Amino acid sequence: MEILYSQKAEKQLKKIFKSNRESALRIIKTIESYAENPSGSFNVKILKGKMASFKRLRVGDYRIMFDEEDHILHIYHVSIDRRVTND
């Protein structure tokens, strides 16, 4: 499956890479693994409400918002999960 990143997702990944290179590399590796085998063991959920056409992939403390269409994985948003960091 081909992977296409939105400009926003690319910018977010670059920002993560600057502050935490290990996490950024882990995110990229997980996205690539998911693209190769979507039926594998991944923490993926279908979003609800207005966002029902998207899925969420969790990688550690990060969430990746994406969808799949015609063997293309579109990555739209990469961010830290605020619920994890707010104790």
A few lines on this structure:
This protein is 38% helix and 34% strand.
Please characterize this protein's 3D structure.
The protein has 87 residues and is of the alpha+beta class. It has one domain: RelE-like (YaeB-like fold), CATH 3.30.2310.20. Helices cover 38% and strands 34% of the residues. The chain is built from 3 helices and 5 strands; from the N terminus they run E-H-H-E-E-E-E-H. 20% of the residues are buried.
CATH topology: YaeB-like fold
Global shape? globular
Low-confidence stretches: none
Strand order of the largest sheet: 1-5-4-3-2
Rg over CA atoms, rounded to whole Å, is: 12 Å
Largest sheet: 5 strands, mixed
User: Which CATH class is shown?
Assistant: Alpha Beta
CATH superfamily: RelE-like
Number of strands: 5
The helix-and-strand class reads alpha+beta
Q: Supply the number of structural domains.
A: 1
Question: Helical residue percent?
Answer: 25-40%
SSE pattern: EHHEEEEH
The average pLDDT is: 92
End-to-end separation: 37 Å
Annotated CATH architecture: 2-Layer Sandwich
